[in-house]
Amino acid sequence: MSDKVVSMPNEERFQARIDAEEKIEPKDWMPEKYRQNLIRQISQHAHSEVIGEQPEGNWITRAPSLERKAILLAKVQDEAGHGLYLYAAAETLGITREELIERLHTGASKYASIFNYPSLTWADVGAIGWLVDSAAIVNQVSLQNTSYGPYARAMVRICKEESFHQRQGYNIMMTLMQGNEQQRAMAQDALNRWWWPSLMMFGPHDGESAHSAQSMKWKIKRRSNDDLRQQYVDQAVQQALAIGLEVPDPDLVWNESRGHYDFGEIDWAEFERVINGNGPCNRQRLAHHVKAHEEGAWVREAMAAYDAKRGKPTVDVA
Amino acid sequence: MSDQSKLYEVFVRSRRGLDHKHVGSLHADDPEQALEYARDVYTRRGEGVSLWVVAAGDITASQESDCDSFYDPLDDKPYRHAAMYDLPEGIDSL
Ligand SMILES: [Fe+2]
Ligand SMILES: [Fe+2]
User: Which end of chain B has less Cβ packing within 10 Å, N or C?
Assistant: First the structure.
């Protein structure tokens, strides 16, 4: 950092750091809106990791073999870990874990809408690992370069663990596609239901995204929604074709001159509906989280009681 | 150095964006003094942009001798690694 930058007023110095591709660290001065914007995005990301355990967790006891069960358990355990990395990163911005959970429970804070769809068959576990984790990875790889240090470092850690997630999902789909007619139909049905929601994961078109412009200037976001979505489509279509699946989009066509797939328009009315709380499982997902949190109260209380007995200062366990 | 001086572990962030890394330890009477000593001992040549000092007594560490049983539950899970899953012909970006 040059002397010139050090003598600037806060806001200018902050932006100069960002323009120079330097990271912002927890004790640096930062605009209040940058802080709030980050808390919103990181906590939404953390909640997604945790709520995302539900559709997959639904199949742990019914996995078709002991090996698949062990794999799924390991995957869901990773997602819990990702939630932890991200909550910890959000906490460096001066918000407590309790406040973050509270915001989730009151609906003030959102999570990825895709987890409001039900996992109806075993093939859905394949589709989630393959599509949802792939889409998450495309986004998370770009966020390894986000401007806030703790968030960027959490992304690096998470990305390292993700490739097993998408591969195990893809492997489930591939195995089903090598099976009998019923199994192939099951895989295709899962793709049909998860394809469009997975495209929605990247959010509204660039022109319509409420937080995009400022987030790009602050380098919280590094690539636009449409840009990331295109990369995901290009990869996922190839992967679908390679195992004999058909992508449920009549407008999908390879565009030679762009070097990308053209694809159909997302049903934005459905996107809005689910994001505003009226998807198939919104209420169930939140109710389950609230219930798990409340049922865990006795553990937090027991730990506090144990600490008190050993003469340690008690922490608030609300 | 007084008799009461405590051992502190020192962590340096060499550049913004990187994790603090353990670089060594030193004795000091209080955290502020430890920070100044750390600056003088570990960052004389611009090695860091941020320093952490932590009283060694406040660190809870795993024991080398417990290693086998401590990490054992994690050793037999090759399926946690992407390399365990074969990919079809022509697909490599996964
Ligand atoms: Fe994750
Ligand atoms: Fe994942």
Answer: N
